[in-house]
Every structure is written in C-alpha cells, then in structure tokens.
Automatic annotation (TrEMBL):
InterPro entries: C2_dom, C2_domain_sf, PH-like_dom_sf, PH_domain, Ras_GTPase, RASAL_RasGAP, RasGAP_CS, RasGAP_dom. Residues 540-648 form the PH domain. The keyword Ion transport does not apply. It comes from Oncorhynchus tshawytscha (Chinook salmon). GO terms for biological process: cellular response to calcium ion; intracellular signal transduction; negative regulation of Ras protein signal transduction. Keywords: GTPase activation, Metal-binding, Repeat, Zinc, Zinc-finger. It holds the Pfam family RasGAP. This is RasGAP-activating-like protein 1. Residues 278-488 form the Ras-GAP domain.
Amino acid sequence: MVSGKTEFHCNKGMTATVWKNLNPFWGEEYTLHLPTGFHSLSFYVMDEDTIGHDDIIGKISLSKDTIGAKVKGLDNWLNLTRVDPDEEVQGEIHFGLELLRDAKGIGLRCHFIEARDLAPRDISGTSDPFARILFNNHSAETSIIKKTRYPHWGETLELELETEELSEGGTVTVEVWDWDRVGKNDFLGKVEIPFACLHKTPLVQGWFRLLPLGNNEDDAGGKLGALRLKVRLVEDHILPSMYYQPLIDLLVQSVISPAEVEDGSPLTMLEEVTTVESRQDVAMTLVKIYLGQGLVVPFLDYLNTREVNHTLDPNTLFRSNSLASKAMEQFMKAVGMLYLHEVLKPIINRIFEEKKYIELDPCKIDLNRTRRISFKGAVSEAEVRESSVEMLQGYLSNIVESIIGSVTQCPPVMRVAFKQLHKRVEEQFPEPENEDVKYLAISGFFFLRFLAPAILTPKLFHLRDQHADTRTSRTLLLLAKAVQSVGNLGLQLGHGKELWMEPLHPIILYSVASVKDFLDKLIDIDMSEVPQRAVFLPSVTVKEGYLQKHKAESPQLLSRFSFKKRYFWLSSETLSYAKTPDPWQVRSSIPIQCVCAVERVDENAFQQQHVLQVVTQDNDGQMHTIYTQCKNVNELNQWLSAIRKASIYNRRMLPSFHPGAYRSGKWTCCLQADRATSGCSRTHSAVTLGDWSDPLDPDAETQTIYKQLLQGRDKLRSLLKHRQAAAVRLLGVVLDLEQAHATFQRQERIGPSLGPEPGSEGESSVLYQTQWSRKTK
C-alpha cells in the first residue's frame, strides 16, 4: 500500500495525503495566478514517507500550448511517466554570444555572466555548477562555483573557428552542469542558438530559459498508474481602467435604477447569454465587482427580487442553479469564511481528534470496526446504533448551539443581504400557509449551501489541512445530513429513503424553534449603519496561526534551532505576532505598506524546509527581513499567497531578492560578499494561489464579464428585437472593448526575440484551474 499525494510545480502546491491506498481520490481544486512567461505545468505523484524523503511514483508534464489548445480545458486520464533527471531542469542563464571577425581570425566569444534558480542536485539542496559552450567539435568550460544555485561566473570564453565553418548551419549549444567529485556530472539544462542567427545579429545577449535534453518521456505503458486531471487555462490581456468603465456603468445602472428590475437590464441579459457551466465563475466575479462598487446588497436584492417574482410555487424557490442562487452562494464564501471558521472549527477539530465509529444505516454497520463497549463480549448492532445516536446528538447539539449564539459574529453585510431576502419573500408569499417560506429562503442558503458543505468537506473550506479518513468522513456525512434537515426546518423528515435517520428526528425538530429565533435575530439589523464592504475593512484578520519565527538580524543566525514559536495575525493593515494568541500578550506589528517582497527561502539557508521571508523597508529606507517556518508546503503557500495579496498594491515592491540567508560574510544563495547587493532571483509578487480572499481587481473582473458577453455575442444580437435600447447599449460596449483589445494587440505585436527575460510579468495574467481526481495502479 502507498500513501498518495500529488504535487504540482510552477507555483508549488500539494494535495492532501491519502493514506494506504492505491486508488486515491482527492477531489481538490486549485487556482493559480501565474506570470505570462511560464512554459509548463508538472504534476508529481508522491508516496509520502513518515521518515526520510518522499518517493516519486511518477509525473505528468503539460506544456502551456497543450492546455491552451483545449478551449474548455483538459479533462482526461493521463499515464504517469518515469522521472528522468536529465529532464528535471529549471532556471535561467545570463550570457552574451558574439561572432568575431578580424585580422586574427574567426571565433565565437561567450561571456558567461550568471545563472539563477538552478535545480538542486546535491543532497545539501545546492549544486556545483559550471557552464560549457559547444559548436561542432569545439568546446570550452567555465570554472566550477561550488554549493550554489545562483552562480556568478563573470568569465569570457572563446572558440577559434575555421573559415569554412562560417557557411555551415549547425547550432551553438550552451550547457550547465553540476560537477560531482565521484561519478558522472549531473545535467542542469541547455540553451541552443542557431548559428545562422549570429550572421544576422553578431551579438546575442540576455537571460535564457534552460531546456531539458529532450529525451522522449516514457509512460511505462501505464504501469506506474494514471492521474485524472481537469486543467483549464485562462489567459487575459487587461486593458487600462478607462476602457472598462462603460461596462461598469451599465452593470451599476442595473441595480440602482428601480425601473430596471424588469427583463431589459444589462444584468438580466448577461444571465441569459452565459452558459450554466460558467455561471459560478460569473457569479463570483459579479460579487467582487459589486463589493468594489459598494453595491453588493442592491445587486443581490436585484437578483433575488427577480427570482422571487418569477416563482409561483414556493417549494421551487431558489432550487435551480440560477445566477441569483450562485451569487448568494459565492457571496457567503467571499464575506463569511472567517465567520464560518469561528462557528465550526472547534467542533470539526474535535470530531477529527476523537475518530469515533458512528453508523446508523443497518446495511453499513461493521461490527468488526467497533470497540468493545463492555466485557460481556462483542457489541451488537443495536448497541452500535445506540452509541452512534448519542454521539451524533452531542455533535449536532454543539453545532446548533454554536450557530444560534453567533448572531453578533456574523458579518453585518451578510445580515443585511438576508434581511432584504426575507422582505422580498414575505412580500411575494404573504399567505399564512407560507409562513415558513421566508425562513426557508434564508436557511436554504445559510445551512444547505454554506454550513452543510463545510461540515461535509472541511478541507475545501480550509477548516482542516487534510481530508478526513473513512471513519471521520462518515461521521461528517451524517452530521451534514442532520444540519440540512435543521435548515429545512424539519419539514421533510420521514419522507425520504433514509428512514434509519429517524433517531435524530427529535433533536432536529427540537432545534427548529431555536433556528427560527436565530434567523429573526440575524435579520434584526439597521441597514443604514452597515458598510457594504465590511469584509475588506482593515480590521478583518484574513489569516492567523502559529509559525516558527527567526529574524535575519538575530545573532543566532547560524543555529537551525533559533526559530521560536510565535502566533501570527495578518490583516489588510498589519502582520503582527506574539508569543501566544492571548489578548493580553504584547504584539509586534509590521505595517503591510512596508512589505517589499514575500518569498520562499532555499532549504540550505537554515537546513530547514518550508521557510518564507518577508522583506520590509522602514521610513528611513533600511531593509529588514523576517524569516518564518511553516509546518508544510501547503501552509507555506497559504501564507505566501495571503501576505502577497495583502501587499499586492504596494508601490515599493522589489524586483529581485535573495532566496538564501546572509551568514559568514556572504549570501548562501549566490555567494556574494556584499550584504546590500541586489537580489539574485526575481520576485514573484504576482504569483499567488487564487481563492475567496483574493483582493478586488476591478479591471480583471470586468474583463471576465466582457469575455462572457463576447462568447454570447450571437445570443445578445438575438435580443435586439425585444429589448432594443438596453441590448444596443450592451452590445455597443462589447464591440468597443473588442476593438480596443485588437488595437492593443497590434501595438504589442513584436518580432521574435532570442533572449527575452523568461517569466517577465506584464499586464497579462494567466489563470490555471486544476482539479485532481485519482491515480490508479
């Protein structure tokens, strides 16, 4: 048996580990924001070992072009391939190549300047790199720079050529190798320059991406297993804000003008021209747009009013995947995730820790998996059900108590949105027999689409770092079913197929009165006193938890044990920390506006994994670095992403950084002695994990809406007959944006370049959405 997990490389991330399983199911989704210069995305399936390094089972590499060729994304089973060290290359090399012609003869001159982010080949996490230039039978090598992935050579090599070689084709090859004292050297990458290019451009200079040897990957005939992936590439060119303002104006007009509640508004037409598959993305984008405009409550009220007014049977209210339903669902995730953690996390943690065997379905009770309840012998099925009911009642009571006591914790903007929804439903269904409909409308979102899914899959809501095991998953499933019944106010109890849930019916019915009282208190709020952008106010803590902290200025920098446990809080204003989370503890704070870079640290800097650095600049211009260590790569990515998002609009962000530490009079990464020297690696401020806490980006969000309208342009034209004025305005804005994009693309179109700086970040953004399924063997 193996314990499977999957890593993806580019912006590195990792799924949870599925223990002792040859057919793991992950069901995890990641969104990565990547720079436009990336070339490939790699997925590694690992066997996690408690002691020592994890074993690589196999990998899958997908080029940017491969994924981009699929308009709707790639969705397929792919065989794992063996990992070939000669193909595992990374990094870039900076050199200049010149063709010499003078009275002394003909030659090739190569000035090797430096390289960065080379693959670590030695057990210490570094390499001993040297570079080599080859053409025909000529070659020359630089000196070896030991123990670094960021070598600085500053050397010039020359090859003497014969006159007849000028007329030949061929390729000039630059290779980088890791020198080994024992055994053969390890390949680190190569760059190939057609010799003909040197006739046209005598001097070629710049940063070049290192490429693998080009061996064909062996998929081992499926013997290593297969991985099912869903990967979608979204690549956008973001225009200046002025081009999006007309579309923003139309969307704003849809919700602030009461006359536009009929079917002729731009927002209504947007729903009609988008596909069901894209509705969730559209809903999340619109929620962010209206949060940025301070109009999220009127936006939701507009959609909900249309939905309610078009519903004749209260039993079908919000049952479809309409834009209104999806918008409310995404809105709760955007503004209520921290509240969700406060309400559910203590109970979820307790369930994971206790690992009780709980089962009510007689067909699924496994007496071999239960512990003895007494010394009389094996437990009976009735005893298992009795103990399961008792434990489920205890868990459910705690959940309901936590919910009904959380009125003041609930974000005010959520309460206002629910209050408006309650009002619209009450106006549409005022009959006494429909008294519960106004409660069901709110609880349907709050319990069924927010709380129950979080209980069922805590990891997807960041309540846990790992997926639940089989036993805990079953407990969570039963609890989620019970919470759904509470949200339905017990109206459907006894009508389903799962009659074995009947022992929980009394506590569910007992909770209904408390839930109704909670909902009444939840909507008892003065709307005029509530800021609609409450989720993005500076006082909100977006992430918190224990980390191991070490300041770069510490005199114990040489010691790997100099990291001290501290509790960190991150808000949009400060990154602060203290010894414990107790309120009386004195906190140290770093203003977010002072952050200049947030980056990973090489393992060899402290001989520790999962270390990140936060580089800041004080008012006097002095640079400071704080190093913190996370528990695992996922926690590292979460903190990197969260701090980068909080500081994304800072004006003093650095273009480069040192991935090592300064000790013994030099940087461990590039071996430079000057502590103030510029960084040897590019910063990655725009490379983040995408999730509910992404900062507002009105231009990127409006670009997403424009693309949806552009794809539905034919449907939009068909609406011209019935909604002449509104359709004409919306179609005109879409066509204007299309023309603006075409103009900008013509201006940006340039000829091919041999030496661009790889991974350079412009105004374009690349978004990968990755879903994991399973690996079979």
